[in-house]
User: Which sequence fits this backbone?
C-alpha cells in the first residue's frame, strides 16, 4: 500500500487565492497558489524583496509569469537573485523603486497547472482540505478541515457537522484510500479514535 504523505504548505497549497477559487479544475483545488510575498523595494532598479513560500524555488526563473495581488495581475519576472533567505525579484515594467513599491505586501502566485507532479500516494494539503471522511463501514465522519504537521507524520483534523473533532494520523494504518475525484478520504476507525 502506498504512503499517504503530504507536501507541507507552500506554493502548492496553503497560500491559495484569498479572493476565492471559482473555476477550479478540481473540486476544492485552488486556481492560484502562492509562491511568495512581496515585501519592500530594494535598490534603484525596481527589485523588491520576496519571502519564498514554495518548496520548489528552483522553478522560478526569468521570463516566468507570476500573478500578483488579489486581482492576480499578470507580470513577467525580469530578474531574480537570492538575498539571504529571501529573493530579490524584478518584473517587466517595474524598473524604479517607486513602481516596485506599488507591489508591496502582495502575494505572488502561479497557477495550479504549473504545479509539479507528486509521486503516487503523496498529496498537497489543499487537495485534502474539504474531503469527506468516510469509515470503512460507510459512516460519514465529517470533513478534513486542517492538517497538523507533527514531525513523524501529518494528522488530519476532521470536523463533523455536529460533535467534536477527530484526529486521524496520516499513515496507512488509518488512511485506507484517498479519492480526489469523488472528494473522499476512506479511513479505518481504531478503538479510541472517535470521541466518546
Assistant:
Amino acid at each position: 500500500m502506498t504512503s499517504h504523505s503530504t507536501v507541507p504548505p507552500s506554493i502548492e497549497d496553503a497560500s491559495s487565492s484569498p479572493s476565492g477559487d471559482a473555476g477550479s479544475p478540481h473540486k476544492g483545488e485552488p486556481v492560484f497558489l502562492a509562491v511568495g510575498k512581496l515585501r519592500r523595494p530594494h535598490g534603484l532598479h525596481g527589485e523588491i524583496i520576496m519571502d519564498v513560500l514554495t518548496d520548489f524555488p528552483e522553478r522560478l526563473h526569468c521570463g516566468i509569469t507570476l500573478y500578483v495581488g488579489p486581482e492576480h495581475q499578470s507580470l513577467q519576472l525580469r530578474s531574480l537573485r537570492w538575498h539571504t533567505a529571501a529573493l530579490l525579484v524584478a518584473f517587466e515594467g517595474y524598473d524604479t523603486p517607486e513602481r516596485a513599491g506599488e507591489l508591496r505586501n502582495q502575494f505572488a502566485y502561479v497557477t495550479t497547472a504549473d504545479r509539479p507532479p507528486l509521486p503516487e500516494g503523496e498529496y498537497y494539503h489543499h487537495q485534502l482540505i474539504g474531503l469527506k471522511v468516510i469509515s470503512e463501514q460507510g459512516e460519514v465522519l465529517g470533513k478534513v478541515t486542517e492538517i497538523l504537521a507533527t514531525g513523524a507524520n501529518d494528522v488530519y483534523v476532521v470536523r463533523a457537522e455536529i460533535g467534536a473533532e477527530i484526529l486521524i494520523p496520516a499513515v496507512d494504518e488509518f488512511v485506507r484510500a484517498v479519492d480526489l475525484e469523488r472528494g473522499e478520504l476512506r479511513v479505518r476507525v481504531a478503538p479510541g479514535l472517535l470521541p466518546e
About this structure: The chain has two helices and 14 strands. The longest helix spans residues 97-101. Helices lie at 97-101, 125-128.
